[in-house]
Amino acid sequence: MLEQQLVNALTLGSVYALFSLGFTLVFGVLEVINLSHGAMFMAGSFAAMTVVTRFKAPLAVGILAAMLVSGLLGLAIDALILKRLRARHAPHLIPMIATIGATTVLTSAAQGLFGVEVQRFPDELLSTREFIFGSVHVRALELAIVGIAFLLMTTLFLVLRHTRQGRALRAIAESPKAAALLGVNVEGLFMATSFTAAALGGVAGLLIGLNFNSVTPLMGQPILHKGIAVVILGGMGDIRGALFGGLFLGFAEVLSKAYLSSQMGDAVAFGLLFLILLVRPAGLFGRVLERKA
Amino acid sequence: MEAFADFWATYSTLIFTVGIHALLALSLWLTLSCGLLSLANAAFMGIGAYTAALLTLHLHWPFPMVLAAGALAPAAVALVIGAPTLRLSGVYLAMATLAFGEVTRILVLNLEITGGPEGLNGIPLLTTWWHIVLILAAAGYALARLRRSRMGRAFEAIREDEVAARMMGIDVEGHKLAAFTLGAVLAGLAGALNAHSTFFISPREYGFENAVDILTMTILGGISSLIGPVLGATILTLLPELLRFLHAYRLAVNGLILIGVVLFLPTGLWDSRRLRQLVGAWRTRREGKP
Amino acid sequence: MNRATKHLLFAAAGLLAVSAMAGDLKIGVAEALTGGAAQYGVPIRNGFQLAADEINAKGGINGNKLVLVIEDEQGKKEEAINVFKKLIFQDKVLMIFGPTLSNSMFAAGPVANAAKVVAFGTSNTANGISEMGPYIFRNSVMESDVLPVTVSTAVKHYKIKKVAVIYGNDDAFTKSGYDVFKKVLEDQKIPVTTTETYVKGDVDFKAQLTKIKATNPDAVICSGLAEEAATLMVQARGLGLKVPFIGGNGFNSPKLFEVSKTAGEGTFVGSPWANTNPTPANQHFVEAYRAKYGSEPNQFAAQAFDAMTIAAAALKTIKVTGNLANDREALHAALPKVALSGATGPFKFRQSVGKDGKPAGYDADQKPFIYVIRDGKFVLFTGK
């Protein structure tokens, strides 16, 4: 049983990591806890599902739709709300609350547009291909999620480290004022980050919605809670932290359900989070937010 | 007279809820006044509610004692987890208190004695309107006095600049713990009152969403004075009732209001300074002074 | 009180005055139309609406029209209380249908009971509901009537020696289903290899299913809602767990097949309703629902439809005098006497006993049908 549980943990952890990549990106660059990331996740899933069922488009188009719709929503939230709050140098709490408001608006809109029932993807898209290694069963789609999570993390990490835009983003994360003085297009990059992070959330929504074949307006909420835990565990703003924090959480959950009791899975996850915060608030990879003079 | 009786019969629960939410918003205000963003107040409310309900259902204690227990139980928990948790600040404190809240909720969900997911049922209706009015007034008075006292000023100093406060000799850890614990007391009271006004409680009422609701009410009203949280609680409790005709879209309106307030009224609806300015400007215009 | 409220109150008063004159029969409907429980509340409301529209089209009840006053209780207990109070004291309805969740009924039911107004739940299956008082009715068949038959039938058919159990432990509905299963298994002396839980909204059950597989049960008993149940079965098959499932009330929904496809083959479910039940009453309901709402009905819609039919039957026998208290009492007295055959089959009420030993509210007295899933459909199990 252990091998199967380890694989289960890997796939679940990758799901969490995939969701958290965009979430942590926004925090790292914009220093905002964007609680509307769950809604981005949900929007991407719905966008893909609509395109695929209503317009009978292939999955690739669905992926594009997910990225575009979520990305644009993220951009809109940034342009309409976050940007103004930045200009005002509002303390961190305020944008977070605004994103809560945005989430409520978006989930209500989704309930209004799509109804409250759980939606599904059409059968043709659901591959039931699975791989069996000894006593371990794993589905092709799950392996894809694991692969994509690692791939995205590596890509983002390399982009941030080695490209000019990446360096500019890291400069902004250090000090927006200094970056602006150095000629970095701070606002432009902020908006690009919002778009990208939301697009990532949308793709995560599509993949995860596809994996569990369940799309509902409220699907973003439970995973948002987990995402918060992941980002704290891994260190806010750190891409590697999102992946490893996600895996850590996945393992903690699965193994405690397997060997302790299935009731304690979530309690263990949050309990661990609590303890880790007490011992190392910055998380595995993060740096504590210094007070900027 | 008949009309009033009908009105009260229809809306009494709603009015009670306004009072209880006001109490919760004040509890959050208290912690915020010391610079602590704690999302644990919903969990403290739950601890108070369950303690009180269990005492009434199983031990049949008189109501005042039950209320006292409901206030003290979360305070005890706050004292225990406060010391290590309050070393964190800002966002990390918020997340730690959030995690604590979730763990509490899951524990309550799984314990036999708390009824699990089915909650506790058949709690007698012991809360009356004057309980709520009395306790709310007492809390308001106590908080107002606290603000002007040395402790209140210490809170303010800590909120403004913790490092400077420490250098001035203020016991930062002790004061933070006091604010955190007193907030838990108020939240627990609110929980105990609530439990005895709705027959039934379950773990679902004390989770993340509820913590966020309380935060929204407090911020909406504004934290510059005690009136703000009460106002915010009143508006956000009554608004869904008034907007009933919008059906599915009233939640969206809630969200829009939140965004609107954050963007355009950042200090909340009730901001003493802005009001003084407005009144001053109005007076000036009236008297024709330049 | 601000203008909006004043206007609303005026309008409500005006409506009241007009409707009182017309001899309309006002029935309150308090269901979760938004929020997490809306996936049940909306089909329930649809069921009521469908039945009421049909009755009105045929001339109403003794010439009076049925008017539904529909409110959204959002699946929250405070809202349920507020809505109940509004319907009782402001809209002055004859009786109330709902609320959706058992949790909400625990909170709002006593309000109706104290006001001597019938509260008729169609989706509350937790224990202790009708025990709250003599004005609490429900037609949702209790798990304790259905599950013993389901289990014994499945055990005989598959020659089951031991089972594993999994259930949703954060929902009163699925938890009380589990409590009943537990007792049934003890009574029928079937050992349990392991008991696992999950939380509503969970989509990944592989940890629990892997654990279950390792204990080698002959079947898996599941007390869950259709959503999670379907995903559970798919993931179970994906892990190589091939034994059959035995489901509680929550399995009974066409949604189950949307996800589980062939994964659910051989599952046993006991239920008061299935869309393939060939009785004319049921087929008429299914077709009418499909025509009006463009989707397949589920158990919740069916029970709501029948509940409205039951209430209409009771209303037919009473004389509406216009004195609200008398009319409500007359309806309360007439309701327990109704016995009919609806979309969910033959139905009558059974009175329960309250905590104080006095006779209390009314439960459904219905026999369950046992269904087995074959070729992706519920098929009535006839012993083969």
Description:
The complex is a heterotrimer of chains A (293), B (290) and C (384). Chain A has 11 helices and 2 strands, in the order ααααββααααααα. In chain A, strand 1 and strand 2 (136-139) form a beta hairpin. With 293 residues, chain A is mainly α. Chain A starts with a helix and ends in a 14-residue tail after the last helix. Chain B folds into 2 domains: 12-237, ABC transporter involved in vitamin B12 uptake, BtuC (Orthogonal Bundle); 246-290, no CATH class. A two-stranded antiparallel ribbon of chain B has the order 1-2. The termini of chain B are far apart. In chain C, strand 1 (25-31), helix 2 (38-57) and strand 2 (66-72) form a beta-alpha-beta unit. Chains in contact: A-B, A-C, B-C. The A-B interface holds A 33, 81, 84-85, 88, 90, 92-95, 97-98, 100-109, 111-112, 225, 228-229, 232, 236, 263-264, 266-267, 270-271, 273-274, 277-278, 281, 288-289 and B 37, 84-85, 87-88, 90-92, 95-96, 98-100, 102-103, 106-107, 110, 208, 212, 215-216, 219, 248-249, 251-252, 254-259, 262-263, 266.
Write a compact overview of the structure shown:
Chain A has about 290 residues and is an all-alpha fold.
Notable characteristics:
B: 290 residues; mainly alpha; two-stranded antiparallel sheet; globular; C: 384 residues; alpha/beta; Rossmann fold; seven-stranded mixed β-sheet; five-stranded parallel β-sheet
What is the CATH architecture descriptor of the largest domain in chain B? Orthogonal Bundle
CATH fold topology of the largest domain in chain C = Rossmann fold
Element-by-element helix/strand order of chain C: HEHEHEHEEHEHEHEHEHEHHHEEEEE
| Rg of chain C, Å, rounded | 21 Å
Instruction: State the end-to-end CA separation of chain B.
Output: 53 Å
Per CATH, the class of the largest domain in chain C reads Alpha Beta
What strand line-up does the widest sheet of chain C have? 7-6-8-9-10-14-15
Pair of chains with the largest interface and how many residues each contributes: A-B, 42 and 36 residues
Low-confidence stretches of chain C: none
The CATH homologous superfamily name of the largest domain in chain C equals Response regulator
Beta-strand fraction estimate of chain B: under 5%
Q: Can you tell me the residue ranges of chain B where pLDDT is under 50 for at least 5 consecutive residues?
A: none
What is the CATH superfamily of the largest domain in chain B?
ABC transporter involved in vitamin B12 uptake, BtuC
Helix content of chain C: 40-55%
